[in-house]
Amino acid sequence: MLTIATDIEAMTRFGRALADPIRCRLLLLLRDGPAHPADLADTLGISRSRLSNHLACLRDCGLVVAIPDGRRQRYELADHRLGHAIDDVRTAVLAVAGEPGCPDAATEGCC
């Protein structure tokens, strides 16, 4: 059984990963399957060094892993359940945002 501290740590790591739009885009791309850093950088339109920093953060959070692939590495989600979690969070937030009375993203007080 997980402790509350472990639960909070896991949620904090996931929140840290989602706190940056580039990391969100990376998670969405990796949800669709493994990819090499050069391809990810090209798709995102960012430098490889900037991508490397974001991938390091996602690795530190335990959300992605680097798999040796010949002389290169490919990245993938650390667990297939993360893809489902990403989809669940995304669809839940979109559903709540569409409900009457939810603050519009353009209004003050919205995250």
TrEMBL record:
Molecular function in Gene Ontology: cadmium ion sensor activity; DNA binding; DNA-binding transcription factor activity; lead ion binding
Pfam families: HTH_5 (PF01022)
Any Gene Ontology biological process: response to cadmium ion
Transmembrane segments: none
Coiled coil: none
Residue span, HTH arsR-type domain: 4-97
Protein name: DNA-binding transcriptional ArsR family regulator
Keyword vocabulary terms for this entry: DNA-binding
InterPro entries referenced in this protein's UniProt entry, alphabetically: ArsR-like_HTH, HTH_ArsR_DNA-bd_dom, HTH_Metal-responsive_Reg, WH-like_DNA-bd_sf, WH_DNA-bd_sf
UniProt keyword Transferase present: no
Superkingdom of origin: Bacteria
Keyword DNA-binding tagged: yes
